[in-house]
């Protein structure tokens, strides 16, 4: 289904007009300016019905309450002063912050705020593919670590700079869909949620088409010599492009993904061996291109939580 494109700029010096605009955009929003004569507000948004990247600028001091919004909203402080509370909880706005599913109160002074909004339906669908089960939920409001925050920022920058700022791409619903899926995967890898419980396999089905082509090439050729140029050619992207796409989608490089596929193949073969078979860990590892056995054993243990010898003799 082709989604309606969102592309607007709204500007006013009236707190009441700003409140009405934000209420229509999100949910009930009530602004109280310390000095209404000094108040100013500007709001831009790019995206479609399912996701937007937005910039909001508030001049002067004010407070505001915002009712629960059905969309997932992530805020990022770009300038000025801002505090965000939900009941008795003071949210940390020094990093990207996922709005809680409850009424929040803003306090600001000359605020410049970045927002990403995503409709919940596809987030929940992809979360279930990642193992969340029927009751998906976010369990925290800030990134799990600095690296995850960087993954989120990279996904937002890609969507904003490479897709939404390009009129040709903006007009193409398939390109917007891939950008949205990249954002959703980054959202689920960045903010604590119940897809993070236990080990998880990268979800290829939710990946962009170029990444899926690269994954298919890797899996079809894992037994042979594979290099980054071949992966890039199969994907239809440049070497730099496919490396960036894998980072955004899986938070790993294509060659790290290749190593993971080969480790899975080693594990499968070790499990298939009978106790009295002549096959050894080293011979199976060598078959799949692992020459340095000490490094291989460490990578295997990190991936599966046990040494390969344990798998072999189970």
From TrEMBL:
Domain of life: Bacteria
Record keywords: DNA-binding, Transcription, Transcription regulation
SMART domains for this protein: HTH_ARAC (SM00342)
InterPro entries: AraC_XylS_family_regulators, Homeodomain-like_sf, HTH_AraC
GO function terms (MF aspect): DNA-binding transcription factor activity; sequence-specific DNA binding
Gene3D superfamilies to which the protein is assigned, alphabetical: Homeodomain-like
Residues annotated as signal peptide: none
Protein name: AraC-type DNA-binding protein
Upper lineage: Bacteria, Bacillati, Actinomycetota, Actinomycetes, Micrococcales
């Amino acid at each position: 289904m082709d989604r309606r494109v969102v592309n607007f700029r709204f500007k006013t010096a009236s707190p009441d007009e700003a409140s009405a605009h934000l209420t229509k955009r999100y949910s009930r929003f009530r602004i109280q300016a310390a000095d209404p004569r000094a108040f100013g507000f500007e709001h831009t948004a790019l995206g479609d019905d399912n996701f937007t990247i937005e910039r909001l600028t508030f001049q002067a001091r004010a407070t505001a309450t915002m009712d629960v919004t059905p969309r997932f909203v992530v805020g990022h402080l770009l300038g000025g002063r801002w505090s965000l509370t939900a009941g008795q909880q003071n949210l940390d706005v020094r990093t990207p912050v996922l709005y809680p599913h409850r009424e929040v109160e803003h306090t600001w002074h000359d605020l410049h705020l970045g927002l990403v909004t995503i409709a919940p339906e596809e987030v929940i669908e992809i979360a279930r593919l990642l193992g969340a089960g029927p009751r998906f939920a976010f369990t925290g409001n800030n990134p799990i670590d600095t690296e995850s925050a960087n993954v989120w920022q990279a996904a937002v920058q890609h969507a904003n700079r490479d897709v939404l700022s390009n009129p040709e791409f903006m007009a193409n619903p398939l390109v917007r869909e891939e950008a949205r899926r990249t954002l959703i995967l980054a959202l689920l890898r960045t903010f604590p949620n119940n897809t993070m419980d236990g080990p998880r396999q990268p979800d290829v089905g939710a990946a962009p088409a170029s990444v899926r082509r690269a994954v298919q090439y890797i899996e079809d050729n894992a037994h042979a010599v594979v290099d980054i140029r071949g992966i890039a050619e199969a994907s239809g992207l440049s070497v730099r492009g496919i490396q960036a796409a894998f980072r955004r989608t899986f938070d790993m490089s294509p060659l790290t993904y290749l190593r993971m596929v080969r480790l899975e193949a080693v594990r499968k073969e070790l499990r298939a061996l009978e106790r009295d078979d002549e096959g050894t860990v080293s011979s199976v590892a060598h078959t799949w291109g692992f020459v340095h056995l000490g490094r291989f054993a460490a990578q295997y243990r990190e991936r599966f939580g046990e040494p390969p010898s344990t798998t072999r003799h189970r």
